[in-house]
Design brief:
The protein has six helices and 17 strands. The protein is of the alpha+beta class. It folds into two domains: about 200 residues, 2-Layer Sandwich (HIT family, subunit A), CATH 3.30.428.10; about 160 residues, HIT-like (HIT family, subunit A), CATH 3.30.428.10. The strands form three sheets. It has a twelve-stranded antiparallel sheet with strand order 1-2-3-6-8-10-9-14-15-13-12-11, with helices on both faces. Helix 1 crosses helix 4. The protein is globular and about 55 Å long. The N and C termini lie far apart (about 45 Å).
Length: about 375
């Protein structure tokens, strides 16, 4: 594979280069950088595709990826595989600097299938094992190991957004992809294995249980009212006001009416869209400003870095696009500076959440943060 370039919005240029093991690294740059660095690491054999097994008690797919047991775990900064390469360390990023990069995960839970993949339609006790088809990508937000999403400049966040939009659009064209899930884990408390500022994209070959439930509820609401559920949710938040954290012309950030976590923030476009690829340039631009504020408010509540999961919910690739709409869900398990909310019996075994803090209270705490 040779180098290739694509021009995107916000003056971002994507440059694709081959990695030593056959994967592709995609550089997203806004300053007309030139990319030609070669991956000088020895060739390593890529792991084979795993399995999808159906849990017959709930008809839910479970991915078996035993090869992930050996993946790197919390290396020191000088051994971080997501930092730029140097004389002393050859990393996943061959260049000596970068703005934003995206590449296939080295130890993926899901991989592209060989050919003619189709998820079974009949889900029951006799459903056979199928290949764990899909894609798992790493999105590095910045070259600086010490940064977090909230520390990025507005321009840098805009480049990250352009990378998300581009990947969602491209992955949606794959016939084996059913749903695309960009997300970020920050903090050891939520299972982070690399502390470099980065997120991931999981592109599933099936609809996850959460998406199936959200889709069914949204479709029922549309049938009953003729309206889009998320539009009605946002209208209620605007009417009630008390749970709004911040807003601008294109986005609104609020603590949901029935929040599950001590600090949970939803960030949604005021004018709803189905997925990230459908965001207008104006919406993408203004996301950079409001998201930076939201993440700074979250860290400002207790004056410490809050462990969180930031999950993009969007419509599946081929169904439900008229009813499921894009929003970002940010959940932190920290309820006090030295206390976490653990998912105990009711939450873990039954999926029934119990909250000892009202959303109106956490929204007020977030609003009161001095930036």
């Amino acid at each position: 594979m040779t180098s290739s370039q694509i021009s995107l919005s916000a003056s971002v240029i994507r440059t694709d280069l081959p990695m030593s093991d056959g994967r592709t690294i995609r550089y997203y740059d806004s300053e007309k950088q030139s990319r030609s660095a070669k991956d000088l690491r020895p060739v390593e054999v890529q792991p084979g595709i795993g399995e999808l097994r159906l849990d017959p008690l709930v008809n839910e797919w479970v991915a078996m990826a035993a090869h992930r047991q050996g993946r790197i775990f919390l290396p020191p900064k000088e051994l971080c595989p997501l930092c730029p390469s140097s004389v002393d360390l050859l990393t996943e990023i061959p260049d000596s600097n970068y703005e934003v990069v995206v590449f296939d995960n080295r130890s993926p839970s899901l991989r592209p299938p060989d050919s003619n993949f189709q998820i079974p339609n009949e889900l029951n006790f006799d459903t056979p094992i199928v290949p764990a088809a899909g894609k798992c990508e790493v999105v590095c937000y910045a070259a600086d190991h010490g940064k977090s999403f909230k520390d990025l400049s507005v321009k840098q966040i805009r480049t990250v957004m352009e990378a998300w939009r581009n990947r969602v659009k491209e992955l949606s064209s794959e016939d084996f992809i059913a749903h695309i899930f960009p997300f970020e884990n920050r903090g050891e408390e939520v299972g982070v294995t690399l502390s470099h500022p980065h997120g991931q994209i999981y592109a599933y070959s099936y609809l996850t249980p959460r998406v199936e439930k959200m889709l069914a509820v949204a479709q029922a609401h549309k049938t009953r009212t003729g309206r889009v559920l998320l539009d009605d949710v946002i209208a209620r938040e605007i009417k009630d006001e008390v749970r709004i954290v911040t807003q601008n012309a294109d986005w609104i950030a609020y603590v949901p009416y029935a929040s599950r976590y001590p600090f949970e923030i939803h960030l949604a476009p005021v004018k709803s869209v189905s997925d990230m690829a459908e965001l207008s340039d104006s919406q993408a631009d203004s996301f950079s400003i409001i998201s930076q504020e939201v993440f700074r408010r979250l860290d400002g509540v207790f004056g410490i870095e809050m462990a969180y999961i930031a999950a993009w919910h969007q419509a599946p690739v081929r169904v439900g696009r008229n009813v499921l709409k894009l929003h970002l869900q940010i959940c932190s398990v920290r309820r006090q500076p030295n206390k976490l909310k653990y998912l105990a019996g009711s939450e873990s075994a039954m999926g029934a959440f119990i909250m000892d803090m009202k959303p109106e209270q956490s929204a007020q705490q977030l609003r009161e943060v001095k930036l």
